[in-house]
Design a protein that fits this description.
- Two copies of one chain form a homodimer.
- Chain A contains eleven helices and 15 strands.
- Chain A has three domains: 2-81 and 174-183, Periplasmic binding protein-like II (D-Maltodextrin-Binding Protein, domain 2, 3-Layer(aba) Sandwich); 85-165, D-Maltodextrin-Binding Protein, domain 2; 197-291, 2-Layer Sandwich (Alpha-Beta Plaits).
- In chain A, helix 10 runs antiparallel to helix 11 (268-280).
- The first copy, chain A, is of the alpha/beta class.
- The first copy, chain A, is elongated, with a radius of gyration of 21 Å.
- In chain A, strand 3 and strand 4 (58-59) form a beta hairpin.
- Chain A binds chain B through residues 34, 53-58, 61-62, 104, 108, 111, 124, 126, 171, 173, 175, 177, 223-224, 226-228, 230-231, 233-234, 237-247, 249-253, 255, and chain B through 34, 53-58, 61-62, 104, 108, 111, 124, 126, 171, 173, 175, 177, 223-224, 226-228, 230-231, 233-234, 237-247, 249-253, 255.
């Protein structure tokens, strides 16, 4: 199974692919998010792994928009613990580092590190793992100030970088949630995984993870429209775990809403809620039903 | 009055300052958003103009987070029409352009231009106007492929750039909404402006813009919590015009909610709604009351 992802080998997305599918999946790097969606559409890959939100940065807008532009099925979600490390070519010391290259989101997640080290210039780069690759390739021994990168330990290993400082993120509660996307109609992953995860623990209740359903809708632009839409869930005691709004193209200051709720359409309350939501929404699409991470 | 903004002279934020305060305000450029908030805190500027959302890109996360981190008052909002132009040093032709530098958000807003011109490489830069300044400074006559920038017509004028293509944004409905922030307790702007805007038109109803109030809150992490919070508005027929969620630091997969509603706390329904919201919210702060743009 070939799985497209954004970034270079060693990116956090590659870790997500391993969590989704184990070692049998072949990760295929791409430069940009729109390219991985296009690759799945063209059948060049069997699935794609996309970051959707991070506990420090928030939602990944570009991918919410691409979820709507394309019509794939979310078949799994997973959560990757993000640890950022300052990585430089072997021989470079911390005091020699003048510039740090990394993805803008990684910069945002290491603001305290930069505040405490004002001598270090921050430079955005398109990918964390790619920044290690680039810094390693462009390094000439002995030149100061030297360049460093911020990325995963895995990226340091792949490109032969040396970790100068470990765990420089502002907050340890740094997790990125990923979706696995496959062509429309694909079955959700993780049922067998859910059943086997509890082996030996004897705690059967923890073994099966709950279902989650993601959807997107628009409301009419009238007072109370969002409240009415949420009532479809609240009146049935359904648990809304995430809401995200995105601008509606061509209609300034109107919005699309993305919701994640616990449950699946086969359950009576969820099925009824979706029918109720369809009544009050101008547009509604279910993006997928999958096992909660 | 000195007003801090992010970017170089010629940035869209400078246009916002002109709309807020006219020509008497002195715009003061800064490299990053956190620096303008710190400058206002330190009293180095009298006010700051910050982009909060764009009709194509969505919300400016960093500024939502900074609104919470600092405790200023939103005293006005305005909406700036964003027109992106491809700008190069005089003498450079479109066919010679190999790389385009601009702010990542501007790249996102010109995706169709890049899709139709795959020979052009896109390079993120920290500011639109700054990308024009840099491209002009680093240009050496006759060198190809040449670099160009994407920015406002105003930026082209300031730095002597030549507009190769006008209006290359994907969507003409491209507006950025800005807040003017001043120290806590400052009075809202725009009352006199609202009263004078209708002069000569005779349409008094259009002259006074409605009030808007922005607030931020968290709910307890229980099913239906957001629904209950929104009921405080909906039960009083108040108009929720924007909702934005941001991750709650240190509590993975929990969220802060930012709301904009029409009205001001002095109105009975709004005052009651805020008291009701305070009952169901764990945390609530009013960020400001101002005239709607």
């Amino acid at each position: 199974m070939t799985v497209g992802f954004q970034g270079e080998l060693g990116a956090f997305s590659q870790q997500a692919i391993r969590q989704f599918l184990g070692a049998q999946a072949t990760p295929k790097p791409h430069e940009r998010f729109d390219q991985i969606f296009a690759a799945l559409q063209a059948g060049e890959v069997d699935a794609i792994a996309v970051p959707i939100e991070n506990t420090l940065h928030g939602s990944v807008y570009a991918n919410y928009d691409l979820l709507l532009k394309y019509d794939f099925a979310i078949t799994a979600e997973t959560s990757v613990r993000v640890v950022h490390n300052l990585i430089a070519p072997p021989g470079v010391t911390f005091r020699q580092v003048g510039t740090v290259y990394t993805h803008p989101v990684a910069i945002d997640q290491c603001l305290e590190f930069f505040a405490h080290n004002p001598q270090i210039r921050r430079e955005p780069y398109y990918d964390t793992a790619g920044s290690v690759k680039m810094v390693m390739e462009q390094h000439s021994a002995g030149s100061t100030p030297a360049a460093a990168a911020i990325a995963s330990e895995f990226a340091a290993q792949i490109y032969g970088g040396h970790i100068l400082k470990r765990g420089i993120e502002d907050d340890r509660q740094n997790y990125t949630r990923f979706f696995l996307l496959e062509p429309k109609g694909s079955q959700p992953h993780g049922d067998s995984e859910g059943a086997s995860a509890g082996k030996g623990s004897g705690r059967k209740g923890l073994a099966v993870r709950p279902w989650k359903t993601s959807l997107v809708f628009t409301t009419r632009n009238i007072p109370g429209a969002l409240f009415r839409a949420l009532s479809a869930l609240a009146l049935r005691d359904l648990n809304l775990v995430k809401i995200e709004s995105r601008p509606l193209r061509g209609k300034p200051w109107e919005y699309l809403f993305y919701l994640d709720l616990l449950g699946r359409p086969e359950e009576e309350a969820v099925g009824n809620a979706l029918r109720h939501l369809a009544e009050v929404a101008d547009f509604l699409r279910v993006l997928g039903t999958y096992r909660a991470a």
